[in-house]
Specification:
Length: 212
């Protein structure tokens, strides 16, 4: 095998990696967008052709996670330090504030003032007997091992889309062998790196344009 054959073989392989990366990033760009909430309450989706698929696979469910146990104790200690003028009564992961308690309204107002100093994501659930604290956790409905390689993560997409860009055509023309599998793994890693490089450069350029 001559040097020129090796050289052109390597260049062809690199070119094919770049073509695969451009194809995958094209798919990801075609799914890029956001949902705009209209004044009438309806959602207006991005007009990118693959955005409906992206939206479906990245659906989330908002779940309230209440402070309890050691985490609640730590939060209560911080509140006691920031609100020394009030005697906070603790009971079963909540602060007791009955309706007939004269300090109920002042404490609630002070909580709205001091909680952002601890964590801006902490929210308050008020009941007739007191308050509990929680955070909203957004949980994806579709497993990450499906949504990320298919459409969400440009780097992870190298694994799924290589089925069409490498595995099917290469196995069809050259058959199944150890070297085909070995080259396929190398191909996925190379395409993933190329995706990361091009996506990061593109995102940085887009941010620069948005800033003017």
């Amino acid at each position: 095998m001559t040097t020129s054959v090796i050289f052109f073989g390597i260049m062809a392989a690199l070119g094919y990696i770049v073509l695969q990366s451009l194809f995958i990033l094209g798919v990801r760009i075609a799914a890029k967008g956001a949902v705009e909430k209209l004044p009438n309450g309806k959602d207006k989706d991005s007009e990118m052709i693959l955005f409906p698929l992206f939206k479906y696979l990245t659906r989330t469910e908002r779940i309230k996670i209440y402070y309890s146990g050691e985490q609640f104790d730590q939060l209560a200690d911080k509140l006691s330090v920031l609100m020394p003028e009030y005697q906070l009564r603790i009971h079963e992961n909540s602060i007791l504030l009955p309706l007939d308690d004269a300090s109920r309204v002042p404490v609630l107002k002070e909580l709205n003032h001091v909680l952002p100093k601890i964590d801006g994501k902490i929210q308050v659930a008020v009941t007739d007997n007191g308050v509990r604290f929680f955070k909203i956790d957004e949980v994806f409905k579709v497993n990450k091992y499906l949504r990320k390689p298919v459409i969400q993560c440009p780097i992870c997409m190298a694994s799924y889309w290589s089925v069409f860009s490498y595995w099917i055509p290469v196995i069809y023309f050259y058959g199944f062998s150890f070297w085909v599998v070995y080259a396929g793994v190398v191909n996925i890693c190379a395409v993933a790196c190329m995706n990361w490089l091009l996506w990061m450069r593109g995102s940085a350029y887009e941010s620069q344009i948005m800033k003017g």
